[in-house]
Fold this protein.
Amino acid sequence: MNQKLKFIFKRFLYYFYGEKFFKRLNYNWQLFPTRTKIIQEIINHRNYKSYLEVGCDNDENFSKIQIANKIGIDPLKGGTLRMTSDEFFIKNDQSFDIIFLDGLHTYEQTIKDIDNGLKFLNTNGVIIIHDCLPKKIWNQIVPRLYGHWNGDVWKAIVHSRTYDHADTYTCIADHGLGVIFKRENRNKLDIKQTNFKKLKFADYYKNHHQYMNVIKYEDLEKVF
Ligand SMILES: C[S@@+](CC[C@H](N)C(=O)[O-])C[C@H]1O[C@@H](n2cnc3c(N)ncnc32)[C@H](O)[C@@H]1O
């Protein structure tokens, strides 16, 4: 089957079996700073020395980051180490000032990467997570359907918003940047559905400001 037919078939199946909620958030990501600009600004302002990127692909971001020590991991291409995040964290004994999570975009893998990242994050460090604000249901379907794929990373952000030991925000920039600090949660989310995988896109659409603790780029410095 050619690509277009495959896509039409998958979309048809989704209309039939999937969640039916087709409203969209209207972020125009081109109007906001990029992940690379924001990560580099954080590194410069905080005088960070060590950087880990999980999921590097074509090194579009990794190659531009300037810092004393940087490690990039990806099982397929880019970065400096050819392995999955799970393989890396099992062997790793280094800690980092800033960790950028942009690997497998599923809830299950992202929450694992967050938990592992927190173990290897220096006390005053930060974890940044890409693709936390899908604009429409099609962007968050697992497995990937087509176009830009946020996956259901956003559910891992909602989960970490309930932690006592981590303080989580989502910056409106570059498809949504999760921002997690290793400190007491300053605004813990109280939510009934704690099977986070089961959260619906409709829940996210209606509650994403509260669920994700959304902040503007201009206010990012204030939460450090
Ligand atoms: C969206 S791309 C990364 C883009 C890159 N960070 C950037 O900013 O341009 C996602 C990458 O994650 C990698 N990946 C997939 N599963 C992974 C895993 N379990 N651990 C680490 N990386 C993974 C893929 O091979 C892919 O290259």
